[in-house]
Structure of Dipeptidyl aminopeptidase/acylaminoacyl peptidase:
Amino acid sequence: MLNLLVRALAGALLLPASMLADAPAFAATVTPPPVEHFVERDAFLDIKISPDGKHLAANMPVERGTALFVLDTETLAKRGDFYAGRDIEVADFWWSSNERLLISPAQRFLGDEAPTYTGEIFAVNADGTQPTALVGYRADDGRRHTRIKARESERVWASPIDLLPGADRHALIQIEPWSSRTSNFASIERLETQTGRRTRVAMSPVTRAQFLTDAAGNLRFAQGLTSENDLELYHLSPGSESWELISSQARAGQQAFALGFSSDGAVAYLQVSRAEGPDAIERLDLATGERTEVYRHARRDPAGAIYSLDGNAVLGVFVRDPQVSMHFFEPEHPEAKLRQSLAAAFKGHDVFITSATEDGRKAILYVYSDRNPGEYFLFDRQTKHARHIGSRGRALVPEQMGETRLVQIQARDGLLLDALLTLPPGAEPRDLPLVVHPHGGPFDIQDQWGFDPRVQLLATRGLAVLQVNFRGSGGYGRTFVEAGYKQWGRSMQDDLTDATRWVIEQGIADARRICLFGASYGGYASLMGVAKEPDLYACAVGDVGVYDLESWARRVDFQKLRWGKNYLQDAVGSEGLREVSPVHLASHIKVPVFLAAGENDRRAPVQQTEMMEAALKRAGVPVQTLYFRGEGHGYYSTDNKLKFYGELLAFLDRHIGSGWQAPAVP
C-alpha cells in the first residue's frame, strides 16, 4: 500500500516517502473499490518481535483459520509455523522466550461461522516443533489434534499475566473454571512453558479480575468487578500474602484502577473517576499511600497508558482528541522523546509500539489513520530506520478513502456531544446523502478516529457518515456514561436526533436523503429513530439489533449471571420498556426498513429481528430481511459479509443514493 522506499525526515527518522507527502490532488473519477476489498481478512492480524530481535511472529489468515508464521527478521524467510487445525484460529500470541511462543486459540464449533475463544493456552517452538496444549480441555487427548501433545484436561479459562523476562521457561497466568451462571475467583499460577506444570502463587480477591505485576514479575495489583458491578482495587505488598483493598466503588462512589509503576517502582499510577467530568490520573506513593492528581484532560478520559519498551514503567497516558495526543509524567525520559519523534514523523497517523526487543533497540510499530487500514514497521532506534513489513488492508488505497473529522454538537439540554463526520473522498460538505451510524454497546463504548471499513465502504459510495458519541458512550467520564442509564429511546435517542438536525442546519446533509444504519444497540437506535422521528429519515437499517426490550432482557446470554441481572436493571431498567421498544411502535414507521441477523446470535437473539419483521409487515411498512445461518452477533464469513454489504448498498442507493463516483488517484 505504501511506497516502500524510505528517506530521511529532518535527520530524525527514515520513513516511506508516501507517508511524508501531502495527499495528491484528485483527478478524474473511477469506480469505487469493490466491496471485497473492505471485507477480506487482513493480510496480517498481528506481528510481534522476539526478545532477541532475530525473529518476527506473524498471525496470518489461512483457509478456515489462521496460522502463526515465524520469520527471520532480516530476510523475512520462514523459519517455522503453527497451524492447529482447519477450524482453529490463533486469537493471540506472545513470545515467552527467544525460542518459545504461547498461543491463545479460538475454535469454530459445529454450526458456527465465527470461532469462539476457548480459554486454552498452547505453546510451540519458534521452528514449529514441540507444539503443546499446556492448559485447557484439549490437553488430555493428543489424538484430537495429532500435532498437539497431551496434557491434563481442564475446563478452564486461562490467560497470561506476565511472561517473566529472564525466566525463559516460565510465565504467570490466571485460571478460572468454566461457568455459565457464576463469576469465579481466579487462581494465579506460575506455568512451566515446556511441560505445562503449574504452581499456585495466589488467589484473586475479587471476581472478573485483571492483574498487574512489577518489574520483577511480582504480583502487585488486582482489580475486578463484584456481582453488583462495583469496581474494587487491591494491592499486594512485596512479601505479603494478604491483599489490601485500597479503592471500592461501593464505598467511595468512584472507580479506580491501576495502570502501572514509575521507572523507579516507588510510585503507581491510578486512573480514577470523578463526580463530574473525565477521569483523572493519580500518583500513588507506595510507601506512604498518599494519592496526588497529576493529570486530567478538560473533557476526555485517558484512553490508555504509554509504557516503556520493556513494559515495566508507565511513562504517560494518551487521549483520543480525536487523534492520539500524549501526556508524559517523565517528559525527559529518552523513550518519551522517542514517542514524540515517531508521532511527528508519521504525521496524520496514530503510532503504537506493539512489541520490542529485550534491549529496546528494535520495535514493531503499528501505524494507521482514518484512511489507512494500518501498516507494520520494524523500527531500529540506533539507525533511526523504519522498515516497512506489511499492510493490513491489501488493496485499499488511502487516497481513495474519505476524511474523518471531529465535530461538536450541543444537545437540546445543553450537553456537549462529540461526533465523527466522514465525507466522501474529494466531496464538498454540502447537500450530501447521509448515513447516521450509531455505535453498539451502548455503554462505555465510543466511536474513535481511525480506519473503519464500514464507514469507508459507505464514503467511497458518495455517502457522508455521522457517528455520534451520544450520552452513555465511554471516554468522557463516569457521569457521561451513567447519563445514558435507563435512557434507551429517550435522551440517548434525542442525542442522535439533535445531531442529525445539526448536520442538516449546517447544510452538510440533504434533509431528504438521510438513513439510519447501526448494529446491535445501533440497530435498536436505527429502528427507534424512524419510529420516534418518522419525518426525519428516509430509511433505516437494523443489523443484529434488539427491538423488544422486555423479551430481550429475559433471553440475553448474560442475564443468567447475577452481575448480568444487576447490569440490566441499572442500565436498561424494567419500567416503561414497551414504550421505547420499536416492535411495539411499528405503526409509527413510515419509511422502508432493512433488517439482518445471525441465527446463532446469543447477544441479540434472532427472534428479536423476526418479531420486528412481523410487526412491520402487520403495519404495512416495506421491509426486507437477511438471515444468516451459523452467524452470531456480527458476520464472520466473507461470503456472508459480501451478501450483507451488497444488499445494504443496494438498499441505500434506492432510498438515498447519490450517483457518486469516487475520485481517482492521478
